[in-house]
Amino acid sequence: MSFRFASCAAAIGALALSACSPQPGEAGEINLFTARHYASDQAVYAAFTEETGIRVNVLEAPADQLIERLRAEGARSQADVVITVDAGRLWRAEQAGLFQPAPELAGVLENVPDNLRHPEGHWFGFASRVRVVVFSRERADGSQITDFLDLADESWRGRLCVRSSNNVYNQSLLAGLIDAAGAERAEAWAAGIAANMARAPQGGDTDQIRAVAAGECDAAIVNHYYLARLQRSGDSADRAVADAVDMAFPSLAGQGSPFNVSGAGLAANAPNRENAIAFLTFLLSETGQRQFAELTNEFPVIEGAAYDNEVLDSYPEILAVPVNVNVLGENAPAAQRMFDRVGWP
Q1: Is position 225 annotated in a ligand binding site?
Q2: Which domains does the chain have, with CATH numbers?
Q3: Is 226 annotated as a binding residue?
Q4: Is 266 helix (H, G, I), strand (E, B) or coil?
Q5: What's the pLDDT tens digit per position in 147-181?
Q6: Is the separation of the CB atoms in 257 and 251 below 8 Å?
Q7: Is 37 annotated as a binding residue?
Q8: Which of this chain's residues are annotated to bind Fe cation (predicted)?
Q9: Residue 52, burial from CB neighbour count under 10 angstroms (0-12, 13-18, 19+)
Q10: Alpha carbon distance 61, 120 (integer Å)
Q11: 226 vs 10, 37, 82, 147, 318, CA distance in Å?
């Protein structure tokens, strides 16, 4: 059964992956395996097809399922491009052998900051996001949130909302802190956050923001674009939630703000290599970079990329942690062990 443009994404589930298996690729198409779940990405695929004439066959699934499927298929896989979110997952995919070098991209990758791409070019970030703290305008003081380490202080006891420790965003945050502050301070921070939780971890990043607005906690750790989405929503209730909170861009142990990426790479056995290279190049083009900033509220990775997004424009200048994001994956196993030791659910 061949899979159709965007048709499989909505149907994918833990037991449904095999139902959308593509047949060997044909000229004029690529098979895109993606863990991104944003409906607005369809506009990116459509723009690529309009510009190149190359059809994009999309298979969407949760990242861990996608990685496991591609690992199991091995040389039989028909994937041309693999996309996932968070450097921790990109590291897992690279460790599983899901990518291959793409020397054809050497020129365009020079425009991507070194810290936002694999050191050997196996994958690259095409859009970035920053881990931030959303806090109540009424019950918290943003001037007291200059560093993530601040949130482990006893003054925050019973006041924080945060996702579970098995969430890759939190794993990468702690992995980055291990690099920035050392293992001992990182584990002490994780223990402090666990002690300061206002409730057991539940829900996604948007749920944490809603909890702050509802008074269930005074601050929450989230990715920036979840608040931006509420701020730009056409739903007045969403905007009311956004109006009840503010956002801080704390440093990570004084090293800069913790950035992460949505990333892509050439699949290890891509049957449509030339078309795949064209698609990967498009992600870094002016059109591609604009789409991500305007549709998903992520930051472009290409410096100076033009876009129209008043919320992103309202942010202060943000200095990123200089370490390569691949380190977030390398340190993720140690981070998970720390979470387990300190009792972060």
Answers
A1: yes
A2: 17-128+259-312 (3.40.190.10), 130-258+317-342 (3.40.190.10)
A3: yes
A4: strand
A5: 999 999 999 999 999 999 999 999 999 999 999 99
A6: yes
A7: yes
A8: 37, 225-226
A9: middle
A10: 26
A11: 21, 13, 24, 20, 17
